[in-house]
C-alpha cells in the first residue's frame, strides 16, 4: 500500500495555461465577450470558426469587428502549444509531434494513417503519475494535468493537418501521455468538444473515441454515468493481482476483480464492448497459464462485451523490459481465444520514431 500512496493522481507541480476558448462553457464565453464589449451572438461565430474551420486566428474571422480582433485573440485564443519536433515513419504514414507548452512542459501526440482512416493518439497529462515500470512516461513522473484546451488543441491541430493533406481525422484514442481518468473533468469536457455537433464541437462520432485507463475503478463507473458512447480501454497487462501490483501499481488500490466489475458496468451502460489492452512482455506476463487465466476471467466478468488487444511491447532504451517473441505472442492469442474471448494483435506503428509515449520528451530533456 505504501507504493500506492506515492502515486500522483493530481497535485501538478506547474500552473495551467491562460484560459482559452476551449476551456470555457457557453456561458463563460458570453461573459468574456461581454467584458470585451461584444454581444453574445459573437460566441457562436467564434465557435463556428474554431470547430468547423479549425482556426484560432481571429484575423481570419472577418465577421468579427476589425477593431476587436486583437483583443479577442488575446482573451480567448492564446497560443498554447509550440511544435518542437515532428518525426515520421511508415513511409510518412505515422507522424509524432513533440510540443512545448507555455511553461516549458512537453507533451506528445501521434497521428497514424491507415487506408480510409486516420487515428490521433492524444495526451491527457504531461507525464504520468501511475509509475508503471515498463512505460517511458510513467518512469518520467507527472509534470501536470493538461488543460481542456491543451487536449482539444491536439485534436484541432491534427484535424487541420489531415484536412490540408486531403484526408480526415476519423478516430481518437486517449492513449498518449498520462492517465485520462486522473484528469477526469478536463478529459470529459474535451471529449464533448471533440464530438459535439451543430457548432458545439468538431463533430467526431463518440463511437470513434477511445478513453484508456490503467483501472481507476470509481472513475470508470463515473464515466459510465456520463452517458457517452465512447469505447473504454482498460490497460490490464496481467490477469493476476500478484504480478499486476508491480506492473500497474494502482492495482494495490483497485485490484483486478474490482476493475473488471467497473468495466462490466461501463459496458452495460454504454452498450459498447470494453477493450482490454495487454502489453506482452517477454518472461513477465506472457506465460500460457496467464493467457488461460485472462480468457477465463474476462469471459466470466464481461461475457461477449470484451475484446483483447495484445500489444507487442515497444521497449524503451536501456530498459530491462522486452517484447515477447512472435511465436509466444501467437500462442498467447490462441489460448485467450480458446476461452471464448476475441483477441487480436494490435498493429504497431512508429517503432523507429520512439512512439512509445514519453520517449521523445525524455530524449528532448536529456538533450538540453
UniProtKB/TrEMBL annotation:
| PROSITE patterns assigned to the protein according to its UniProt record, in alphabetical order | RADICAL_SAM (PS51918)
User: Which locations, inside or outside the cell, does it occupy?
Assistant: Cytoplasm
Q: How is the cofactor bound?
A: Binds 1 [4Fe-4S] cluster. The cluster is coordinated with 3 cysteines and an exchangeable S-adenosyl-L-methionine.
The GO molecular function terms of this record are:
4 iron, 4 sulfur cluster binding; metal ion binding; rRNA (adenine(2503)-C2-)-methyltransferase activity; rRNA binding; tRNA (adenine(37)-C2)-methyltransferase activity; tRNA binding
Q: What is its EC number?
A: 2.1.1.192
Q: Which residues form the active site?
A: 108 (proton acceptor), 357 (s-methylcysteine intermediate)
For binding S-adenosyl-L-methionine, which residues are annotated in this chain's numbering?
178-179, 212, 235-237, 314
EC primary class: transferase
A Pfam family: Radical_SAM
What are its GO cellular component terms?
A: cytoplasm
Residues annotated as binding [4Fe-4S] cluster: 128, 132, 135
Q: Which GO biological process entries does UniProt record here? A: rRNA base methylation; tRNA methylation
* Domain of life, source organism: Bacteria
InterPro entries named among the record's database cross-references? Aldolase_TIM, Elp3/MiaA/NifB-like_rSAM, Methyltransferase_A, RlmN_N, RNA_MTrfase_RlmN, rRNA_lsu_MTrfase_RlmN/Cfr, rSAM, rSAM_sf
Q: Which cofactor does it need?
A: [4Fe-4S] cluster
Name of the molecule in the record: Probable dual-specificity RNA methyltransferase RlmN
What species is this protein from? Corynebacterium phocae
The lineage is: Bacteria, Bacillati, Actinomycetota, Actinomycetes, Mycobacteriales
Amino acid at each position: 500500500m505504501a507504493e500506492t500512496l506515492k502515486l500522483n493522481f493530481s497535485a501538478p507541480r506547474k500552473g495551467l495555461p491562460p484560459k482559452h476558448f476551449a476551456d470555457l462553457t457557453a456561458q463563460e464565453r458570453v461573459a468574456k465577450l461581454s467584458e470585451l464589449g461584444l454581444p453574445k451572438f459573437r460566441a457562436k461565430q467564434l465557435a463556428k470558426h474554431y470547430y468547423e474551420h479549425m482556426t484560432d486566428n481571429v484575423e481570419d474571422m472577418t465577421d468579427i469587428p476589425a477593431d476587436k480582433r486583437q483583443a479577442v485573440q488575446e482573451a480567448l485564443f492564446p497560443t498554447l502549444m509550440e511544435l518542437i519536433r515532428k518525426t515520421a515513419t511508415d513511409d510518412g504514414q505515422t507522424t509524432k509531434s513533440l510540443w512545448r507548452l507555455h511553461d516549458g512542459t512537453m507533451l506528445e501526440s501521434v497521428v497514424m494513417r491507415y487506408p480510409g482512416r486516420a487515428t490521433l493518439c492524444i495526451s491527457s497529462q504531461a507525464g504520468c503519475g501511475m509509475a508503471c515500470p515498463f512505460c517511458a512516461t510513467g518512469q518520467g513522473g507527472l509534470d501536470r494535468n493538461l488543460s481542456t484546451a491543451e487536449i482539444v488543441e491536439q485534436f484541432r491541430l491534427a484535424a487541420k493537418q489531415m484536412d490540408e493533406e486531403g484526408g480526415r481525422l476519423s478516430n481518437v484514442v486517449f492513449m498518449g501521455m498520462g492517465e485520462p481518468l486522473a484528469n477526469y473533468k478536463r478529459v470529459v469536457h474535451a471529449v464533448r468538444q471533440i464530438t459535439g455537433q451543430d457548432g458545439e464541437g468538431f463533430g467526431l462520432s463518440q463511437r470513434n473515441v477511445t478513453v484508456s485507463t490503467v483501472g481507476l475503478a470509481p472513475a470508470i463507473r463515473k464515466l459510465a454515468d456520463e452517458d457517452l458512447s465512447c469505447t473504454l480501454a482498460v490497460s490490464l497487462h496481467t490477469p493476476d493481482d500478484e504480478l499486476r501490483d508491480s506492473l500497474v501499481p494502482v492495482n494495490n488500490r483497485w485490484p483486478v476483480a474490482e476493475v473488471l466489475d467497473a468495466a462490466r458496468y461501463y459496458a452495460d451502460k454504454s452498450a459498447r464492448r470494453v477493450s482490454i489492452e495487454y502489453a506482452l512482455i517477454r518472461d513477465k506476463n506472457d506465460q500460457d497459464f496467464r493467457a488461460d487465466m485472462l480468457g477465463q476471467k474476462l469471459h466470466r466478468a464481461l461475457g461477449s462485451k470484451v475484446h483483447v488487444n495484445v500489444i507487442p511491447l515497444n521497449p524503451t532504451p536501456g530498459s530491462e523490459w522486452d517484447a515477447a517473441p512472435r511465436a509466444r505472442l501467437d500462442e498467447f492469442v490462441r489460448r485467450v481465444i480458446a476461452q471464448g474471448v476475441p483477441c487480436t494483435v494490435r498493429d504497431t506503428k512508429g517503432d523507429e520514431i520512439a512512439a512509445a509515449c514519453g520517449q521523445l520528451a525524455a530524449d528532448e530533456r536529456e538533450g538540453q
